[in-house]
Every structure is written in C-alpha cells, then in structure tokens.
C-alpha cells in the first residue's frame, strides 16, 4: 500500500468522521479505506482514530498528525504540479468557495473557456453565506466580498463592487418612493444578519466626505442568505443594499428599482483568500490568474 495514498484516505476519514462516508466519497470499498488507515497506524506506531458503532473521532495523536499530514500531501502535490507544462498535463482538482451571485454572474458563463484549456482539471465550486474553514474543509481558496478581518490568510484583490439601494415596484406602490434620508423613518429595511441575532437594523451610506454613516430603521424581516435577501426585496418586504452586479438584470427587467442613489454605501472590495503556504499548486495558481483576468475584463 502506497503510504501517501493511505494518508489521503486518512484525511477523508478525518473530514467525514465515517469510514462508510469516506468509502462512498472515494468510490472504494469500506474495507479498503479501513485497511489503509490500519496500515498507516501500524507504520506510525500509534492509533489515529477512536472507533465506535456510531462515529469515528481523532485521538490526541490523530489530532497532532492531521495538520502535518495535510502539509506533507500539499507540498507533494505542489511539487508535482510545478513540472506540469501544457494544458493537457495540468490535472487534479481545485476546490473554491465563492458568493453565489459572483459564481453565477461572473464565473459560470465563461467556465467553458477554462475547461477547454485545462480539460483534466476538476473544479469543485461551492457557495456559502458563512466563512468556510479553508484548512478543515480542504478549500484551495475563497472569494469574499466586503472588508476582511482574517489576517491568517493571504489576500489577493480582484476588484471593487459599487453598491445600490433597491426596492420592488410593489413596495413603492404600498409605501411610496423614498426621496431623502428623512423619508426612511416611514420605510422598512430588510436586515441581512448572518447570525439572525438581535441588533438594530441600519441603512448604511457614505456622506459627501466619504465617511460611513448609518440611519436606524424599522425592519420586519431578517435573513441570513443572499438569495433570501434578494427574494425578500422582490416580494416587496423592504429596502436592500447590494452590489450593483447582483441586481443589474433585475433592474433592467423592471423587477427592482434603484432608490436614494445619492446615499449609497462605499464600494465593496472583492478578494481571493488562500492559506499561507510555501507553495500553491500550479493548477490553483492558473485558475486564480484566470479568474483575476476574467474579472478585470468584465469590470
């Protein structure tokens, strides 16, 4: 049994917490995965997992081995990829997490260009409204919109998204069109709140000196996903504040209306973030470069 292959299977078991799920994910018999881990444990001279009928958990030694195992496999993968030259030789998988609207509006319409150049690379693209753990979830890099506060990751700036305030035609029919900030006391704001915690909903904007300002507003609904945020606005439940790219098509179709254009929030930075590692696999670097060029071309 190849020791590196056994380490790869160990990582999947550590991530899923199940030999059965790991076997399904790897497309292997459960016995093959279990045997690989047992041989790895024998080679290391320690037990990596506590096994029970309900779950599989890492031992203390397993917890210590896990990050070192990831680092070894990553360095090996990076070393191999550095010597891959042409598009047909670049292979492997890339796992990226990015906002859903960014994925649908920017990436997917042009992804066939990448696939034709690098047909042997498998892309795993996810969209989450929470910050993923790159190391634990084995994500190569993430695209994030907004200000960053994670200093443990390397940041590569992509672009800036200009902002808009929007409502639906049905909302205007019921509540009227807000014309100035004082009008907001008679309007509703849809609150985007990642934790759905209790807080005061605020309309955010920058003044003529580009200083951030807030106006407290009433809100009858809070949501924690971008899809729900847009859907709530389209349903006439209140005002939203979103990147212009997210609502361009809806505004052109008359499904949403831009309001208070003199009181928009500051542009939102869009960045790629990846772990601080010695080497980035060539396929990942190529995809990051392709995405960077794609965004700049469209922007």
Model description:
There is one protein chain. This protein has helices at residues 3-16, 19-26, 30-44, 60-81, 100-107, 111-117, 169-175, 226-234, 244-252, 282-298, and strands at residues 49-51, 56-58, 92-97, 121-126, 141-145, 153-161, 163-167, 191-192, 202-206, 212-216, 222-223, 240-243, 257-259, 268-275. It is α/β, with parallel strands linked by helices. The chain has three domains: 3-81, Arc Repressor Mutant, subunit A, CATH 1.10.10; 92-159 and 269-298, D-Maltodextrin-Binding Protein, domain 2 (3-Layer(aba) Sandwich), CATH 3.40.190.10; 163-266, Periplasmic binding protein-like II (D-Maltodextrin-Binding Protein, domain 2), CATH 3.40.190. It has a five-stranded mixed beta sheet with strand order 4-3-5-14-6, covered by helices on one side. Strand 9 (202-206) and strand 10 form a beta hairpin. Helix 1 (3-16) packs across helix 3 (30-44), helix 1 packs across helix 4 and helix 2 crosses helix 3. The longest helix is centred in the N-terminal third of the chain and has 22 residues, at 60-81. 26% of the residues are buried.
Summarize the structure.
This protein is α/β, with parallel strands linked by helices and 299 residues long.
């Amino acid at each position: 049994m190849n020791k590196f292959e056994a380490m790869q299977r160990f990582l999947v078991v550590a991530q899923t917490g199940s030999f059965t799920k790991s076997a399904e994910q790897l497309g292997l018999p459960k016995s093959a995965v279990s045997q690989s881990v047992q041989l790895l444990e024998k080679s290391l001279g320690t037990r990596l997992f506590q096994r029970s009928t309900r779950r599989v958990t890492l031992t203390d030694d397993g917890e210590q081995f896990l990050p070192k195992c990831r680092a070894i496999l990553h360095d090996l993968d990076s070393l191999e990829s550095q010597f891959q030259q042409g598009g047909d030789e670049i292979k492997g998988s890339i796992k990226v997490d990015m906002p859903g609207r960014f994925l649908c509006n920017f990436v997917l319409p042009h992804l066939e260009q990448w696939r034709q150049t690098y047909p042997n690379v498998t892309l795993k693209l996810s969209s989450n409204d929470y910050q993923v753990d790159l190391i634990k979830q084995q994500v190569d890099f993430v695209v994030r919109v907004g200000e960053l506060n994670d200093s443990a990751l390397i940041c590569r700036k992509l672009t800036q998204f200009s902002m808009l305030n929007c409502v639906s035609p049905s909302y205007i029919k019921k509540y009227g069109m807000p014309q100035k900030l004082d009008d907001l006391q008679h309007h509703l704001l849809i609150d985007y709140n990642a934790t759905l915690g209790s807080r005061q909903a605020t309309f955010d904007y920058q003044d003529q000196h580009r200083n951030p300002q807030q106006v407290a507003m009433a809100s009858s609904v809070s949501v924690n996903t971008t899809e729900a945020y847009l859907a709530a606005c389209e349903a006439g439940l209140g005002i939203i504040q979103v990147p212009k790219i997210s609502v361009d098509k809806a505004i052109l179709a008359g499904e949403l209306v831009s309001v208070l254009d003199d009181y928009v929030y500051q542009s939102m930075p869009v960045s790629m973030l990846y772990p601080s590692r010695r080497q980035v696999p060539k396929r990942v670097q190529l995809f990051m470069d392709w995405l960077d060029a794609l965004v700049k071309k469209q922007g």
